Amino acid sequence: MTNTAGHDLPYQNMAKITIDNREIECRDGVPVLQAALEAGWDVPHYCYHPGLSVVASCRLCLMEMQLPHPKTGEMGWAPKLFPSCQTPVKDGMVVRFDSPPVEQNQKACMEYFLLNHPLDCPVCDQAGECYLQDYSYKFGEATSRMHDQKQVNPKKDIGPKTLLYSDRCVMCSRCVRFADEVAGTGELCIVNRGGRAEIDVFPGIPLDNPMQGNVVDICPVGALLDKEFLFDQRVWFLKSGDSICAGCSTGCAIRVDQNDDKVHRLKPRFNPGVNDWWMCDEGRFGWKYIHDPKRVTHPKLRRGAETETPAWESVDEIVTYRFEQQAAKHGGEKLAVLLSPMMACEEAWLLAKFFRAVAPEATIATGFVPTVEEDQFFPVGSDAENAKFVIRREKCPNRRGIELVVEHFGGNTCDFETFVTRAGEGTFEAVWAVGGYPDAWVPKPLATAMAKIELLVVQDIFENELTAEAELLLPACAWVERDGSFVNHAGLIQPFERAIGVPEGAKRDGQYLFAAAGFEGLYSGERVRELMAEEMDAFREIAEAPKKPAHQH
Amino acid sequence: MAWNTIDRNEPVVDADASPVLSEAVCEKIKTFFPKYPTKRAVLLPALHIIQHEQGHVSWQAMIEVAELLEIKPSDVFDTISFYTHFWTKPQGEKVVTVCRSISCELLGGREVLAACKEHLGIGEHQTTPDGKYSLAVEECLAGCDHAPCLIINERMHKRVKPEQVPALLADAGNADHGLPRSDLFDPPVATNGSDEDVIDATSDVAEMKDSN
Hints:
The structure holds two protein chains of two kinds. By secondary structure, chain A is an alpha+beta fold. Helices cover 25% and strands 20% of the residues of chain A. Chain A is built from 14 helices and 26 strands. By secondary structure, chain B is of the alpha+beta class. The longest helix of chain B is centred in the first third of the chain and has 12 residues, at 43-54.
C-alpha cells in the first residue's frame, strides 16, 4: 500500500466509479489512480505523488476506460490506454486495470525502467523498500531482452546531505517537482533530456534547502540517498515507532526507524493538514543528541559534598518526603514546579498532580520556550496563507499542551519569565525544574536564584548550570524513549509511541512521575490520557479514540 | 566520497567575476518580454541572442540570464542541455555539424563525417588547434530529402559527397547563409526561389531521385 491510502480529507462531493467490475465510492475529481490506491488497488506508479503536480510521465499506471463510441454512442472499451494519474474521477466512469493490454503495458514499462538499471541491489540502501524491486516482482518480467551495453550515468554529489546515483534513476521527476513546488528553491533539473536524461543541479548551486531530505523519501528507487543513512543499515533490520517530531511546534508525524535501541533515521508519516507528506531537515537530522554519551543517565542525589546514585525505587519517596518537609517548613506557596514544553502532556499532568497533592498552593509554571526569529514558510516566498509547509519558530513540541495542563490545575500559575523574576525575588524555597532541551537553555538569573533555595530537583537531559545546583538530578529521556502526547501549535493533540528503550540506568520520565503522583503499576500514555480525560475535556476525544493495535516490533 | 563521484558542490563560476552579458545583449533580451506571457518563455530567444553574440553560452551567462528572466539557473541548464545547437563551451570560428541520423547514414553520411575528421584532423565535438573549425554531430538536420547533409555555421550543404569535403571546407564562403540572418522570431524572410541553398518547405522527391 502507498502512504496515501485510507486518509479521510473532508470532501463534499463523492462519486461512484467502477474499477475492475467493482463499484467503489470515492471523492469526485481526484485522479482515478488516487481513488484506486485509496480503495486498496496496488496500481504501480512512479511519477505520481499526491503532494506534487501530475506529469503522467512514467506511463506505468495506464488503465483501460470505457468511452462512448463516436458514431453509435454505445459505451465500450476505448482502444487506447489512459494514464490513471491524469484522468479525474467522474461519476459513473468504468475503468479496468486487470486487462491484458494494461498488464502488457506494465510489463513493457518495467522492462524499459530496468534497461539501464545497474541491478546493484546488494549494495543499494533502497533495497527492501524499493519500488523497482516491488514492481518488478509483481508486474515485471524476470529477464531483460536487452543485450547491448547499458547506458551508465554517473554518481553525483549534489548537495551536503544527498547523493544522486543517476544510474539507478527512473526519471520520475518527483524530486525536481518537489524542489520546485514544495521547497520552492528549484535546485534540481533534468539535463540531457532524451535517452540519456539525468537529474542534476546547476554546478555550484547544490541541493541545499531546509526541506531537501524529502527528496530521498519520495524517490521511489535508490537514486537519491541520504548521506547520513548511507550504508548505515539494511532497511529490513529496522523497526519503527510512530512518533511526533519534537523539533518545533508544527508537530510533524514521523516514523522513528531503529535497530537495537539505536535510532538510524526519521521519516515523515502522512498527516493531512499538519505536515502532509513532508518534514524538515532540522527535525529529520536533529535527533543526534539522543545518543550523546554526555547525557544524564542516572539519578544523582547530593548530600553535602557527597553525591550518590539513589535506587529508582526510592526516588518517589525521596521527592515526596523532601517536598512535604519543605511545605511544612516554609508553607505550600514556597513550592514551585517548572513544566517544560519538551514534556508530554501526560508527564506534565502527573508532575502537576504530585505538586498539588503535596501543597495545593504550590506554583505551577510553564517552562522555558525556545524560539528563533521567525517561522519559515515553504515554498520559499509563500506566507502563512498559502504555505505548504511551515517550520515554526517555537523549537519545542508541547507549549500548548503544557498551557492546557497549567490552565487545568489553575490556582497559583505563571509563565516562565514571571517565574524567573519571582525566583530572583526569593519567592520559592523548593522547586522541581524540568528541562529536556537538546541545547543550553538555563538563563543566568534562574541559575543564580536556584542556587540559593533549599531544595532543587532538576529533571534534565544534559548537565548545565541548573543541574549543578540540584540536590536531586533526575535524567529526562528523549522523546523517542517516551510515550505520551504533544499538542501542536494549532491545538491538535497527537499521541506518540515509544520507539527505543531508555539508556542504561535511566527510567522513563513518565514512569517515575507516575509513581510520584501516587499511581501504581506501569505508566503508559494511553492509561494516563484516560485518567486525564476524566477531568480535562480536551483529552476526552483522544482518550476515547479507537485504540491502535500495539506496534509490531 | 571514496569512489568515483561528480562533485556538484564546486562552483563553476567565479562569484566575483564581472558580468559577461553586455548591456546591449540584456536590452535586446528585454525587447522580447512583451511578446511572451511570461519572462520564462523568453529563455530560448535569449539563449539565441547570447550565443549569436558570444559564440557560446557560458555557465556565467546562464546564471546571468536566469537572473534576468527571474528563473533558476537550473532551469537554464535544463533547457540548454536539451538543445544540442546551444554550445556551453567556446567553439571554432566555423562549426561543422554533420548528420548521423538514418537518412544521411544510408546515403553516405558516415563517409562524409570520416572525411571531415580526416581533413580537419579532429574527432567529434573537438576544435582544431588554430580555432578555425569545430566538428559536431547531430541526430538530424531536418534535411533528410537532401541527405547526406552538413551545416557550416548556419549554411546547409546538401547531398555532400566525401570527395567534396576538402573543397567545401576550403571555400571561404562556406558559412555564408545567402540571406540576412533572420531577426529571431520575426516574420520569415521571403526567398527568391533561385538560391538553391535555401531548402524549400516541401520535399521534392523527383529532385532527390534525379540527384542519385
